[in-house]
Amino acid sequence: MRKLPLFAALAVTVLALAGCAGGASSSGTSDTDPVKLTLWHNFGTQQNAIATQNLTDAYTKLHPNVTFDVVSQPGDNYFSLIQASAISKTGPDLAVMWTGLFTLKYKDLLVNLDGLVPAADLAKVDGLDYVADGFDSANGPYVMPFEKQFYMGFYSKKAFAAAGISSVPTNWSELYAACDKLNAAGITPVVYGNGGQTLGATFYTWYDASYAMIGAYTVDEWANLLNGTVAWDSQKNIDQLTKWAAMKTNGCTNSDVLTKTDNLEDFTSGKAAMIIDGTWDTALFTDAMGTDVAAFVPPFSDTSIKGVVEFPGNGFGIMKSSTHQQAAADFLAFLTTDAAVKIMDESGLISSVNGAKTSNPVNQEMLDFAGQFGFTRYPMIDNVIQGDVVDVGGKVLPSVLGGNMTPKDALAQMAQAWNQLPAEQKK
Length: 427
Hints:
This protein has 427 residues and is α/β, with parallel strands linked by helices. The protein has two domains: 12-149 and 312-377, 3-Layer(aba) Sandwich (D-Maltodextrin-Binding Protein, domain 2), CATH 3.40.190.10; 150-310 and 382-425, 3-Layer(aba) Sandwich (D-Maltodextrin-Binding Protein, domain 2), CATH 3.40.190. It is 40% helix and 15% strand. The protein is built from 18 helices and ten strands. Strands 1, 2, 3, 4, 5, 6, 7, 8, 9 and 10 form a ten-stranded mixed β-sheet that branches. It is globular. It starts with 11 loop residues before the first helix and ends in an 8-residue tail after the last helix. Residues 1-18 form the signal peptide.
C-alpha cells in the first residue's frame, strides 16, 4: 500500500506486554444494544479515507445501534501509537494494518479472525495468505484485506501526443528516449515529490524500488533478497539503481525531487507527463483529467517489463484490547458484501473481494495487466522484506535519485541492515 517508513518500534518487552494483555472477550451485546467502535487509520485525506468513512456510514445506516469514531492518526508514527495504545488499553477496536510481514510483526496485538468472521465471508477475500502465519490462510488471518492496490505509473495521453510519443515505454532505453522528446516539447517527463501523502519529507521510494527489483528478478527470486542468497549490494542491484538514478541526471525528472510538494498538481495540470503513484490516487487523476490519464507499468527493465505490483496492501484488524470484538468482526464481514464492494468502487478503489468489478477505466487498465495481458503479479516489496531493511531503504534511496548518494553506498547500508538482523528473521 501507500507506505510510511516503519519508525523505531517499542522495545521487545513492550510487545511482550501487549501480547500478555491477551484477547478481551466480545462485549456480549445484543443486536439492539448501542455499540461505538473506534477505528484508526493512517490514510490522511486520500481515497482510502473517503472509502472508510463511506463504509462505516453505510454500516451504521444498516445497523443504527452501531456507530463509529473514525480517527485519522499521523502517518509518521502510526504503529508506535498502535503499540502504545495496546499497552494502555486506550486504543481502537479496529485499526488499519498493512499486509505481509507488517501484519506478522504486529500479530500479537491482533485477534485471529478465524472463527470470529464467518468462514464463508473470509473465503470471498483475496490475499488472506499474506495476513496469516506462514503466509498460509489455513492458519487464520489477523487482518481483513480492504482493497486491491497497485503501485503504478500514470501518464497523460495529451502530453505524449504533444511530444510525438506513439507508444508507452516498456524498458529503460525507451523511457530515456521518451524523456528526450518530452523535454524538447517543454514538458517535465516524470514528476517526483511528496505531495498528497504523510509518509515522510520526500517521495516514497518503494514504489520505484519495487519495479527496479521486478526488472531484475522473477517473483520467486525475491525470496533470495530475504534470505541473503542475493545481497542487497549485489552488482545487479547496483546496476538497476544506477539506471534509476540516471533518470534525474538525464533530465527525466524535475530537479527538486527531494523537496517538491505539488507534484500531483504538476501532473494533473499537464506540466508533467508521468508520475509513479498508486491506486489510492486514481480517482483524483480521473476526476481532474478525464480520459487523458492512463496507467502504465514503470519500465525499469532492460527488456520489456512483464511484472506488475498487484497486492492487497492493507486491511482492518481487530485489536485484542477491544471490548467489542464481535461487533467489530461483524463490520469486517460486511466488507465482503455486494453493498460494500459497490461503495469501494464509488470511492474510486478496488475491493479485495474476489471478482470485484471497477467502473473506473484506469483501475480496469491496472487489473488487465495481469488479467488480460499476462503480466506476472508481484507483491509490494516493502510488505515482504524485513522491516529494518525497509526503514533503511526509505531513508537512503531517495538520496540516490536526488544525486546525494551513490547506489553502491545506499545499497551497502541496506545490506548492513540485513546483516544485523537476528538469525530467525533471515528467512
